[in-house]
Amino acid sequence: MQINRIDETLAVSPQIAPADIAGIAADGFRSIVCNRPDGEGSDQPTSDEIAAAAATEGLAFRYLPIVSGMVSDADAETFGAMLRELPGPVLAYCRTGTRSATLWSLSEAGRRPLPDILKRTKAAGYDMNGVARRILNGGRTPTDTGDVRHDVVIVGGGAAGIAVAASLRARKPDLDVAIIDPAEIHYYQPGWTMVGGGIFKPEQTVRTMGSLIPQGVKWIKAAVAAFEPANDAVILDGCRVVKYGRLIVCPGLKLDWDGVEGLTATLGRNGVTSNYRYDLAPYTWQLVQRMRSGRAIFTQPPMPIKCAGAPQKALYLSADHWKRTGVLDAVQIDFMNAGGVLFGVKDYVPALMEYVNAYHANLKFFHRLIAVDGPSRTATFEVTAPDTPKETVTVSFEMLHVCPPQTAPDFIRVSPLADAVGWVDVDQHTLRHKAFTNIWSLGDVMSAPNAKTAAAARKQAPTVAENVLADIAGHGPVAQYDGYGSCPLTVERGRIVLAEFGYGGALKPSFPAWLLDGTKPSRLAWLLKERILPPVYWKGMLRGREWLAKPEAVAVRPQNAEIGKP
């Protein structure tokens, strides 16, 4: 007998037998609900037999038979009422448990967010994406077949989404494209490191979304709740349905601030800050300016994260300020990294280590931040170094710069588009979904093993645009992405180590070494970061001008024999 727990009040299971009841009672269950009609299988115990065995063990029993594939709205309401009335926890069963899980999902509509319902049922072994639209509709069966349809629908209006929309329209101005995003504001996130270092003003990193949506592209200002790839449909909050010919998924990733105990309660005060948020980057600079002595801690969580160099960029710019103001020797700098290396591409490590040593920073690897106590100014780390017992250490601080844990957004992780760990499952070269041939993904949310940076999205957007238009024309992929990413490591004010690399850590410099050697700190690279890249972003990338980003042609067309839309 397999019992699959949904939450603390309910578990579901396949068919049970009278002989199982004693064990169910011993496991702490106080009620049983049968959702399988009598006589559905020749070897199936009747509900009366189960009821009698339950009574012997002192368990309550209810019979709510559901014909397979025919869970009605009224059934879901009745099931929800039963759960509220019966002593818990409750075990519900049918032939496989799916009908019971469906009943619970629909009965919880309006009480729980859709991603939470899908996450819990998925963890129990049941995929409820097929009833996501009903859940969003308050547990009731929708009557619509689609509110609107576009040739290309883009989920996400960040750097990747607007760039790929602009690239598509630059190639085919009459293409019917829509972007789905609820945000009013668009941020130039690479600039927040500079805000935290006192170089940029926060307002330099902000534009209204409406000013950036490419001309002719429809903006659907709503949040996505679920996907129905078999029906070529995106389901919005409120159960509106957007149909598509091709879908491009690029909503970015989720900064999991709640993944560190106590962090959200103290962000922006008690010396706790992060350049990963627009409203906190100015606080970073305030703390740096005020600090004259004590310990400053900079953290980095497990990979993957957005802009893997950002945690140490904050360290370098802070330390540079303390050096320039003559207080560096009074400041203890700790870089607490959950990983085991300073930077993932070894060619850049020597130059970075020179600055680590010059700033007297302590590198502590395999240290993952798990809790923060703001009022007491202490941070707790889980230490998992190889070949040593796991331990936790708590240290005090005057300043704590946190890079939060990061995951795919909830509505992606529980969707049919996700791989085993939650990212949109794409071919790393064509950026086409591995299972659904009319879906592509780019930016931070997709599964390719590249650095999650705006520079990567700048290269990915033309690749996706070329391949989507080739597909519309009836051809196979024509462009491929080589894993390019860039991380301008601001090692001091006025100098940058410009890391540019592709898949496997291969160096991908944009300039000849005589002009700019990215493995060494450079004033030219600083000029690029401070003066050139912001206009390239606002006036180039987001407008379909692909400077230094032309897509690479597919040399040997990928074999798509195993790719098929269900």
TrEMBL record:
E.C. number(s) listed in UniProt: 1.8.5.-
Q: Where do the coiled-coil regions begin and end?
A: none
UniProt cross-references to SUPFAM superfamilies, sorted A to Z: FAD/NAD(P)-binding domain (SSF51905)
Keywords assigned = FAD, Flavoprotein, Oxidoreductase, Quinone, Transit peptide
Domain (Beta-lactamase hydrolase-like protein phosphatase-like) ranges: 6-110
Top-level taxon of origin: Bacteria
The GO annotation for biological process reads: sulfide oxidation, using sulfide:quinone oxidoreductase
| MF annotations from Gene Ontology | FAD binding; hydrolase activity; quinone binding; sulfide:quinone oxidoreductase activity
- According to the record, the segments passing through the membrane are none
Show where the FAD/NAD(P)-binding domain sits: 150-262
Which prosthetic group or cofactor does it need? FAD
Q: Which InterPro entries does the record cross-reference, listed alphabetically?
A: BLH_phosphatase-like (IPR005939), FAD/NAD-bd_sf (IPR036188), FAD/NAD-binding_dom (IPR023753), Prot-tyrosine_phosphatase-like (IPR029021), Sulphide_quinone_reductase (IPR015904)
Question: Which protein is depicted?
Answer: Sulfide:quinone oxidoreductase
